[in-house]
């Protein structure tokens, strides 16, 4: 297993290197990071423009900029991915790309973790029930809900869920659900319990939005997998031996049927992190999605490249983890 | 298998514990205390870029709104566009002192101190001048400053009476009608930079101080509010009443500015009590529709601080013919454009008829209508063209038997109003046989700088401080005269606009220049982009919008009162 993991990691290095070249070239060709500065009224002087070009390394050639971005050698100490420096932001020194990425990840992880836990739980429950009651009204109902959630665009789903939260607040005269932000402003004055309630109130609506999109596809996987196992020989044998149905389902069928979902979900986590862009925009969470949107809007080239490289790294890591998990969970798979 | 289970279980418990701890421990901020009493949350619709509003990154309306109430200001524009002095800070009424060189004097309130106890003094004015001087010998690399015409005209700023009297002197022969706007976006505490060991008497030191104030928010205040905790340019800024302020204490003890870029979330958040108002920098029919009919919500719509216009590229061979330019401007129906873009939610909108002044300005003169520009009169346009030797052959306009080449009409991708305007212009021009090919650009700055267009649709922002604008728009040596107008008389007039002694004299020259530009059919003003604001009347009272200032409705936040 260790050899396999090391081999996969070694393969990941050239993949990430190729990704870095592509990311750099695409972002580099996509526009002028100083476009807003050039448009200022009154226009900046030539000295200011020259200083800005030097600050953001725009006075260097493209290959030189790539080298700087990767290694930081020859830079001003604010650039070099391999040194943990993400480059200067066109939004000024107050915006440290590394720090912002770190705080964004923390916010997004909270949302994504809650959504994954909820989506997995619901997908397993719905998939198993659908499989056990195949072609029943319940199966059709759950299938319909799954496809509905799958077909509905996230921005529309988010808006509907937000309206639902508002309706609940207005009907009950409470303010439990919040529609913007991850927390209220004045949290430092709150007790732990108040803070917990505040966090939960902010978390529910975006979590439900994010959860529903993943739940839909995962529940279909779970249903198919469960059906396959329920119709397998060893389950039929267990039933023929008189093992109670509850035990057959819980101990024998479900465990095996969960294996494909675990790997699908591992890869799906990356999809959720990328899909969080829309949800975070709707609910104004300052996570990775918001980070990316703002970076694009402000032509912040190094910030966009950092986000893309982080996404690329997550994809590579997630596929590695999925393969390893498959080997761990399925005794039939052994890596040499 | 048993070990695996235990490991998985431990991992699950660990993840849960981390999440639970993260969710249950409120972060403790070392702030300036206060808050909680009469708190108002206000939306800022874009993030800021730096804490120094003079800098290229920080020079935005959003940063000025965040800093408002923390930085002391000598004066401000009223909603009616009249200049008013801040009598809390300046105890005299500054007036121009005529002499060999123009100068004026501020007398600072002796009680006016920063919240750390240091006096607000001439040093703070001196820093502001050096920052905006644009002189590399005073501040290296132009201080990374977004520049200021007034700053570049100042020869010296000197202090006397322990720094409580400030004398500003312009360079020899220099005049500037907007002299009173010096420091209007706010003064910074120079002593804080000095305490950091920065030498403000050197050009490099000044540049260092520019970055210093840009990179971190102020922890002290020289006005009614002070930042609490760590404000975030792209998140949340909390301002609480400054207990050390020498003037009246504001009724609203806490103002929270929440950056919120998603306009679809504003009204739900308003009705849910999460925010109490906003004065967005961008227009939205959808938001206004949502606001209509809401109880306890007041909203207003008026002409905003920017205007849309169509520019001609004078380097285009076909467009060098003045008759063709006039015909194009005659054929475009600006009232129709106004109605179809903003008219539904702002029925009072009218075409803009001056390049420098909006209709509501005391200096406004209609320089457009007499030329028939914007009238949408295809017959008049064709008549002009026929007189100049053009001929409409079917659907094609021809000159000497050759079709007039198609014109590239460009605008910023994703700008909904400009998309509509472009299509309407395209339709209007087709009536006189001119083909307009609509192209978008993702790089407005680059497209303008390279004059990579035949007709360009974009906007300029405007303030009552108009003195430098005509020079910037039309002077033959201006970097923002993108279409390449080169008329000596215009150059002279825009120079005079900037070098007049009074706003009235300056406006006279600006209007003369605008009339000449209209004669040249160089720029067709279209409309003042409208702006709107809204607030929850069950929370606050006393809110009025102010389109003459970047601060918009926040301009009088210290005068707002809490309801109940």
UniProtKB/TrEMBL annotation, chain A:
PROSITE patterns in the record: ABC_TM1
Transferase found in the keyword field: no
Lineage: Bacteria, Bacillati, Actinomycetota, Actinomycetes, Streptosporangiales
Species: Nocardiopsis lambiniae
Name of the protein described by the UniProt record: ABC transporter permease
Annotated localization: Cell membrane
Main location: membrane
Membrane-spanning intervals of the chain: 9-27, 107-128, 140-161, 200-218, 258-285, 305-329
Stored Pfam families: BPD_transp_1
Entry-linked Gene3D superfamilies: MetI-like (1.10.3720.10)
Keywords: Cell membrane, Membrane, Transmembrane, Transmembrane helix, Transport
Domain ABC transmembrane type-1 stretches: 105-326
Membrane topology: Multi-pass membrane protein
Family: Belongs to the binding-protein-dependent transport system permease family.
